Amino acid sequence: MAAVVRKRRQLNLHLPLPAAKSSRFSSSPLRLPLPLSLPYNNNNSVYRVSDFDKLQVLGHGNSGTVYKVQHKRTLATYALKVIHGDCDTTVRRQITREVHILSITDSPYVVSCHGIFEKSPGGDISILLEYMDSGTLDNVLKTTGTFSEVSISNIALQVLNGLNYLHKQKIVHRDIKPANLLVNSKMEVKIADFGVSKMMSRTLDSCDSYVGTCAYMSPERFDPDTYGANYNGYAADIWSLGLTLVELFVGHFPLLPPGAKPDWASLMCAICFGDQPTLQDTSASEDFRDFIKCCLQKDSTKRWTVMQLLAHPFVNQRPI
């Protein structure tokens, strides 16, 4: 565990960020190492940042702000994610990675990207995204309370379909959690925020395990020798999904007592040394409890895959 301790400062504990600075935008295309010419949209026409009016702030993220914006001519609504030009090199690498993944993904279960802009070389980076009018599942949980089992089954099915698409493209998300799952008023759920995702190549163990939000990391990301001979990013996404679904059902992060303030040490101990997480609520169905058990196997080699979970009765017999 010594190696884990040495790297603890690299973990993202999802601490609150200060308010973002205001900024103005220009229409310069993004100058990042991407496989296509940007900005772009699904209609093959060029967008400029000046084409949009900012309506409100939707939230603050990692060195940036997300705005609700409206196209001046069409009145179409989008979300505009703005990363400040003075962000550090780590954040800029993450946004480069996110831009690349968004530019090559096309799934109804993954948030759509409609354009990417850079104010000037090294300046603010803006990503024009599909607008999901109900925000994140984290916001919905905090404002309206816990989800019913039927709703969670529908959420699980949609996220699994999204992960199935991503994993087939050899993309590991590495940060599945309520705050990274967007939802609209139709209860359509889409995976978002690919800043710490990974494009897998020849080997799985080339994937750096010390990224993402610490609370939702799987045991093998802390201690691969004990919980998985080789770090498997695909299996780690399943663990994070399992914790997310339990949180939506019980209303709090499931590995710590309600109201407990998370810190790196308590989270690591709970994940690595605690008992296998289970859904203990007696109101949950047997299918739901079994589904969570399949997601939260501490040994990554025993954890179910996306395809196995898609055949599980908890999601397989329930339409979206």
Automatic annotation (TrEMBL):
Gene3D superfamilies hit by this protein: Phosphorylase Kinase, domain 1, Transferase(Phosphotransferase) domain 1
Entry superkingdom: Eukaryota
EC identifiers of the protein: 2.7.12.2
InterPro entries: Kinase-like_dom_sf (IPR011009), Prot_kinase_dom (IPR000719), Protein_kinase_ATP_BS (IPR017441), Ser-Thr/Tyr_kinase_cat_dom (IPR001245), Ser/Thr_kinase_AS (IPR008271)
Keyword Transferase found: yes
Keyword tags: ATP-binding, Kinase, Nucleotide-binding, Phosphoprotein, Serine/threonine-protein kinase, Transferase
Amino-acid positions noted as binding ATP in the UniProt annotation, renumbered to this chain: 81
Catalytically driven reaction(s): L-threonyl-[protein] + ATP = O-phospho-L-threonyl-[protein] + ADP + H(+); L-seryl-[protein] + ATP = O-phospho-L-seryl-[protein] + ADP + H(+); L-tyrosyl-[protein] + ATP = O-phospho-L-tyrosyl-[protein] + ADP + H(+)
GO terms, biological process: response to other organism; response to stress
Any single Pfam family the record assigns to this protein: Pkinase
The Protein kinase domain, residue ranges: 52-315
First and last residue of the signal peptide: none
Claim: ATP-binding is one of the keywords in the record: yes
GO MF annotations in UniProt: ATP binding; MAP kinase kinase activity; protein serine/threonine kinase activity
Family, as annotated: Belongs to the protein kinase superfamily. STE Ser/Thr protein kinase family. MAP kinase kinase subfamily.
Protein name as it appears in the record: mitogen-activated protein kinase kinase
